[in-house]
Amino acid sequence: MNHDKKNQVKTIFSKNADAYATSKTHASGEDLEQLIDWLQPSSRAVALDLATGGGNVVKRLAPTLATVFATDLTKEMLQNTSHFLTDYKNVYYVVADAENIPFLNDSFDIVTCRIAAHHFPNPALFIEEVHRVLKPDGTFILIDNVAPAIPALDEFMNTFEEMRDPSHSKALSVKDWIGLIERNQLEIVREQRTKKTLPFHNWVNRTAEDQSQVQAVTHFFKRAQKEEKQYFEFKEEKGRLQSFSIDQWMVMCKKKSSS
């Protein structure tokens, strides 16, 4: 199952590399502005960005740090992103699995992962690997879409996400993420929960293979119950869904120096 998901990630993201590099949803957001404010990084720091996608985190980090390693499971995505980031000479590109990071223990001052972990089949292994490659007292920032605490709403969200993008594995709840973080000797020092509005047309078409897939997802949303429409903040016009909102969590953790 894990192998299948990772192959789907490679297939889908290699086909849609440009869409993610230019996606306004991924390229903007208060979280990107807050990264540097939260980190207050040293100019000598070395960072690792996991599942870099369109390279939006790397663009914020590179001007402030000594070196940034941009990694992604999908070679085509990484190659495409490198063409957008030619101005940054301190960025190195490595094809890498976030659940099997090809670097030594205690290598990085900073590790980041933004809007990607819901694609990871084994998030527990991902967090273990983050802890392993972080230096003692190093900083980890995770930003991702998170599932509601209510099971029915969790199921609704993860269903439409996988219908739209079969490489989606699972959006975890904040509670689930906290459990994984704490079990791996990472200490949460700051967190923020926000709502992220997604334009439905752009969102559903970004990874859709064909029109029948778009129609299936559209029909699923049309059958949403009142509670689902309220929680995900459906905005409709003349019976057509224009946008909806999902939860996003940003958390900053420190690796305990005694571990």
From TrEMBL:
It comes from the Bacteria. GO terms for molecular function: methyltransferase activity. Residues 48-142 form the Methyltransferase type domain. The keyword Transferase applies. It is an enzyme of class 2 (transferase). Keywords: Methyltransferase, Transferase. Gene3D superfamilies: Vaccinia Virus protein VP39. One of its GO terms (biological process) is methylation. InterPro entries: Diverse_substrate_MTase, Methyltransf_11, SAM-dependent_MTases_sf. Its EC number is 2.1.1.-. Pfam families: Methyltransf_11. The keyword Methyltransferase applies. Belongs to the methyltransferase superfamily. This is Class I SAM-dependent methyltransferase. It comes from Jeotgalibacillus marinus.
